[in-house]
Design goal:
There is one protein chain. The chain is an all-beta fold and 73 residues long. It has a domain of 49 residues. Helix content is 0%, strand content 56%. The protein has a four-stranded antiparallel sheet with strand order 4-5-6-7, with no helix packed on it. Strands 1-2-3 form a three-stranded antiparallel sheet, with no helix packed on it. Strand 6 and strand 7 form a beta hairpin. The N and C termini lie far apart (29 Å).
């Protein structure tokens, strides 16, 4: 299971023991899995800017794929 809480993204196996997915210091959210379930896209929000990251769930490596400012409302 993957969920957002306290501004961060977490993964938790059925047995319990939630762990952070990404180890940044900014707000994380808006997650979406790739069709094959091997990658997770999510947004980081920091200082009026948003970054779209693509995280390889096997390796834990993240790649920034887009950057932009917050839009209105």
């Amino acid at each position: 299971m993957v969920f957002g809480a306290a501004g961060f993204l977490w993964k938790q196996p059925v047995a319990g023991g939630a762990q952070r997915i990404y180890h940044g210091e900014t707000q994380e959210g808006e997650l979406a899995f790739s069709p094959d379930g091997k990658e997770l896209a999510f947004v980081l929000a920091e200082h009026g800017m948003c970054s779209l990251l693509l995280l390889n769930l096997s390796s834990g490596q993240a790649e920034k794929v887009a950057l932009g400012g917050f839009g209105p409302g």
